[in-house]
Write a structure and sequence with these properties.
Helices cover about 35% and strands about 20% of the residues. With about 300 residues, the protein is an alpha/beta fold. The longest helix is centred in the last third of the chain and has 13 residues. Bound molecules: uridine 5'-triphosphate.
């Protein structure tokens, strides 16, 4: 039986240059989709999948992420005094329990692979989930939960993938698909940012992984790859020689919130899905006079779109 995955790693040490100047002092992962920071969505997804220990690899200017996952006594007391019990309960519910978070620093942003390697001593000799918080997934159940179901069957390493237009493969890590259903198929190869003509498929590695701890030793010696950064895909490619990798083509919609278009689209999608916001938001959009009226999508339409 596959060893249970209890720990998740959240690399949050990137510079977020595509979001400057917003990210000059504010971590990209604290940007909000409607009223929740991106990092909170990732933590929620991990909790839903049964994760018990949350490891954040942070960098300079990221102290606010640690504060976000701490109690705020002054705020809580004020909410209590004002009788805002619903807001208070929601705040408390968002927090992993005491002792379940760990923070370490990536002293230089040398790449995602290097950020993951920085978590090696905290994770230790056990499988772990890796979630990139700027990839936001909307769907039920969450992507990591869907991957956990595959992992229980296959063990080894599991990667979430989605289709991208062939013209975009050179921006992503791409896998080659072997046998098996969408809920868990063999991965036979992978490559980071291939040229379109060299890409083994149009299935993109989309920011959620379940990895075995042997990846750490490979990351330790991993030379810089695409973009001059230490790439997790390169280390996974080596690990594939000795361990199985499965892919899950997940159900749901993804938003690349590291890009402005993805981030703005996510805000619209999540706002339209909120009963307390939808109507007022649509009315405000219609006032902007785009030359087109936006209709209120019915709940059934929204579900089908997901
Ligand atoms: P990105 O590739 O989106 O890089 O990182 P970035 O630096 O955050 O953003 P841009 O491209 O400059 O706008 C994907 C994830 O990996 C983390 C990021 O914080 C993000 O969650 N990361 C990336 C690190 O933790 N360290 C790194 O050295 C690079």
């Amino acid at each position: 039986m596959a060893k249970r995955v209890r720990t998740a790693v959240f690399p949050v040490a990137g510079l977020g240059t595509r979001f400057l100047p917003a990210t000059k002092a504010l971590p990209k992962e604290m940007l909000t989709v409607v009223d929740r920071p991106l990092i909170q969505y990732a933590v929620d997804e991990a909790r839903e999948a049964g994760i018990e220990h949350f490891v954040f690899v942070t960098g300079r200017n990221k102290g606010v992420i640690e504060d976000h996952f701490d109690r705020q006594f002054e705020l809580e007391t004020t909410l209590e005094m004002r009788g805002k019990t619903q807001a208070l309960d929601a705040l408390r519910h968002d927090l992993p329990s005491a002792g379940r978070t760990s923070f370490t620093r990536q002293q230089e942003p040398l790449g995602l692979g290097h950020a993951v390697w920085c978590a090696r001593d905290i994770v230790g000799d056990q499988p772990f989930a890796l979630l990139l918080p700027d990839m936001l997934f909307k769907g039920v159940p969450g992507v990591l939960k869907q991957m956990m179901e595959a992992y229980e069957e296959t063990g080894g390493n599991v990667i979430a993938v989605e289709e991208v237009p062939p013209s975009e493969v050179s921006s992503y890590g791409i896998i080659a698909r072997g046998e098996g259903p969408d809920t868990g198929f063999a991965i036979t190869d992978m490559v980071e940012k291939p040229r379109r003509e060299d890409a083994p498929s149009n299935l993109m590695i989309s920011g959620r992984y379940i990895l075995q701890p042997e990846i750490f030793a490979l990351l330790a010696d991993q030379p810089k790859g695409a973009g001059g950064e230490i790439q997790i895909t390169d280390a996974m490619q080596t690990l594939m020689r000795s361990q199985p990798f499965s892919g899950v083509k997940y159900q749901g919609t993804s938003f690349d919130c590291g890009s402005k278009i993805g981030f703005l689209t996510a805000n619209v999608a999540y706002a339209l899905d909120r009963d307390d916001i939808r109507e007022g938001f649509l009315a405000a959009m219609n006032k902007l006079n785009f030359g087109q009226q936006f209709d209120q999508p019915s709940r059934s339409n929204r579900t089908a779109a997901e």
